[in-house]
């Protein structure tokens, strides 16, 4: 399967970082077909207007529906290189960054990495006329998505974050696939702390367990570190873990960590 990502924006230069690092390398290697489209090319007045005042009053401007419809139709008119017959719904997935959308997570990235065609609509101002999403739902699978509980000036930053999170999961993009398994959120936990040479740096030593060569002990210790770090920084992730994901040792580590920070009666799983 060749993966195709289309991005529509009025600030196409904002997406220039997608030419860099591993994502840029994946594009040049043909692993990812990433196309950036200028919304203003689908306007028909000399000012290339993409926004207007909101019906009902209120501050700010709203993005006009017709340029968006024409831009999305143009993307659909560009046939994909191939169609995966395993896809139950052949319509592209249209992602609309919005603080009113569902929250983007690592699980979302994993699901989208299985998609053949993603389209990202970078809104600006007060957002895109709601009728565009209603109209698009007949042609796309529409997903308003938020990268966090805050507001940005536009969707470009969110789209770059989402594309990087998804594209790095595609086969061949990351040089060592094993690193994807060990990183933060891969299994619902934060990543363990990492160290490199020298073993003694400014009076701070690397934990001795990492120098033992005992790989089973190192793996167990790193798991303990993950549990403690996640409980300290993101207790909500611990509470969301399915019970079957925790063995007896995990529960002991969490109980000890909870007592260290919250007293004898603290229960990290409640």
Give a description of the structure:
With 270 residues, the protein is an alpha/beta fold. The protein has 2 domains: 4-175, SPOUT methyltransferase, trefoil knot domain (Alpha/beta knot); 176-269, Orthogonal Bundle (Trp Operon Repressor, Chain A), CATH 1.10.1270. It is built from 9 helices and 9 strands. The protein has helices at residues 21-28, 65-77, 106-112, 130-136, 156-167, 178-182, 215-233, 235-240, 248-262; strands at residues 3-9, 32-38, 51-52, 62-63, 93-103, 117-121, 141-146, 200-201, 204-205. A 5-stranded parallel β-sheet has the order 2-1-6-5-7, sandwiched between helices. Strands 3-4 form a two-stranded antiparallel sheet. A two-stranded antiparallel ribbon has the order 8-9. Helix 3 (106-112) links the parallel strand 5 and strand 6. The longest helix is centred in the C-terminal third of the chain and has 19 residues, at 215-233. The protein is elongated. It starts with a strand and ends in an 8-residue tail after the last helix. S-adenosyl-L-methionine binds at residues 123, 147-152. One of its GO terms (molecular function) is tRNA (guanine(37)-N1)-methyltransferase activity. Residues 4-239 form the tRNA methyltransferase TRMD/TRM10-type domain. It catalyses: guanosine(37) in tRNA + S-adenosyl-L-methionine = N(1)-methylguanosine(37) in tRNA + S-adenosyl-L-homocysteine + H(+). It is an enzyme of class 2 (transferase).
């Amino acid at each position: 399967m060749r993966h195709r990502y289309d991005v529509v924006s009025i600030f196409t230069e904002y997406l220039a970082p997608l030419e860099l690092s591993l994502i840029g390398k994946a594009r040049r290697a043909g692993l990812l077909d990433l196309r950036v489209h200028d919304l203003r090319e689908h306007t028909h007045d000399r000012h290339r207007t993409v926004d207007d005042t909101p019906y009902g009053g209120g501050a700010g401007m709203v993005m006009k529906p017709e340029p968006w419809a024409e831009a999305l139709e143009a993307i659909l008119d560009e046939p994909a290189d191939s169609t995966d017959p395993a896809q139950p719904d052949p319509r592209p997935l249209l992602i609309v960054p919005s603080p009113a959308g569902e929250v983007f997570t690592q699980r979302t990235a994993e699901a989208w990495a299985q998609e053949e065609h993603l389209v990202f609509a970078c809104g600006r101002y007060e957002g895109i006329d709601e009728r565009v999403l209603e109209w698009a739902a007949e042609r796309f699978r529409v997903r308003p998505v938020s990268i966090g509980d805050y507001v940005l000036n536009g969707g470009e930053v969110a789209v770059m974050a989402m594309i990087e999170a998804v594209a790095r999961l595609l086969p061949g993009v990351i040089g060592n696939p094993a690193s994807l398994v060990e990183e933060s959120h891969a299994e619902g936990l934060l990543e363990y702390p990492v160290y490199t040479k020298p073993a003694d740096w400014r009076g701070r030593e690397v934990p001795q367990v990492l120098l033992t060569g005992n790989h089973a002990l190192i793996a167990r210790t790193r798991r303990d570190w993950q549990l403690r770090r996640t409980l300290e920084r993101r207790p909500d992730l611990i509470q969301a873990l399915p019970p079957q994901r925790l063995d007896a040792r995990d529960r002991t580590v969490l109980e000890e960590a909870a007592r260290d920070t919250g007293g004898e009666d603290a229960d990290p799983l409640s």
